[in-house]
Design a protein that fits this description.
CATH topology: DNA polymerase, domain 1
Number of domains: 1
Oligomer: single chain
Strand content: 5-15%
Radius of gyration: 11 Å
CATH architecture: Orthogonal Bundle
Shape: globular
Number of strands: 2
Strand order of the largest sheet: 1-2
Order of helices and strands: HHHHEE
Structural class: mainly alpha
């Protein structure tokens, strides 16, 4: 699945813990596209109750599902072998 095709994927489809989904939803983040946009704008860690552990869980889920990884300062496309 490509990044552009998956941008409309709902956060529920990522298999995140309920708390992480709730934090994202309360911040108005409903899709993978919203996650990526907030990460690129440096806003993801500024979301209320968003911590490093949740960011890791989101990044791990995104890498497994669509091949991208979010770090503290970038969104990286990961090539699948």
């Amino acid at each position: 699945m490509t990044i552009s095709k998956s941008s409309s994927m709902k956060i529920e489809e990522l298999g995140l813990p309920v708390r992480t989904e709730t934090v994202l939803r309360e911040a108005g983040i409903e899709s993978v596209g919203d996650i990526v946009l907030n990460a690129l704008n440096g806003k993801l860690l500024r979301v209320h109750n968003m911590g490093h552990k949740q960011l890791y869980r989101i990044s791990d889920a995104l890498e497994k599902r669509i091949g991208i990884r979010i770090t503290m300062c970038a969104v990286v496309h990961v090539e699948r072998r």
